[in-house]
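Hi there. Long-time user, first ticket. I'm pasting a complex I've been working with (about 266 residues overall). I'd like to know whether the download I got is complete or cut off, because the file seemed smaller than I expected. Thanks.
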Amino acid sequence: MTTSDQKLDKSVMDRRSFFRAGGGVAVSAAAAVLPAQEAAAAEAPDERTKARYKETDHVKAYYRVNRY
Amino acid sequence: MARMKFLCDADRCIECNACVTACKNEHEVPWGINRRRVVTINDGKPGERSVSMACMHCTDAPCAAVCPVSCFYTTADAVVLHSKDLCIGCGYCFYACPFGAPQYPRVGNFGSRGKMDKCTYCAGGPEDDFSTAEYEKYGRNRLAEGKLPLCAEMCSTKSLLAGDGDIIASIYKERVMKRGYGSGAWGWKTAYKETVSV
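Hi, the file is complete. Here it is re-exported in full:
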């Protein structure tokens, strides 16, 4: 291989550096996506244990008909 | 603060299994899992009794006590829920539960278990209320919609009661007083003998 060929190879980017760069991009993309998904999915501890039961008209009707 | 409870009036249950079907449909429960089931003793004989069973949302839940990854939590309504993200499917809760409530999907052909699944009292899970993730993992969140568990709401004989423990206890007491005989609760005669009436 001549000196000019070696110069050409370096300017194009060889196979190993191509995959190294690709891997780096994939990892940084995953790191950017993951925290966003977690934030969307999980509730805060206080929020998830808060009372959800409400004595709505629907619930009152249920209690009423169960007294028959 | 209201404490959510289930109460099955065994004198009224006719083993129609509508509660089981309603639960499976409402939450799109996976194949092979029953969050609720109807147990019948002395089937076909005099004195036959049926009772609808699911997670009873224990105050001091044994499942939570044995869980190695602490995936259980109790809400302010006294509903025992769990996180499927934390669950490792070890099966300890199944052995600890006196009601056989925890269920496991079969995820392979060699006995491997998936994440535990159980009755959520129609109260969803740790994900945001009404989110797709919550529905896919735990089913519908009827409690946050201002409703009660569907199994109890659609019970044809009004056998299965759900809601505020104080209110359903008073409803049950009214029924017993009107009937004028025993409580109908399992174990009553064992505990209080035949001679003791209500």
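A couple of notes from our side: The CA atoms of residues 63 and 95 of chain B lie 8 Å apart. The longest strand of chain B covers residues 4-8.
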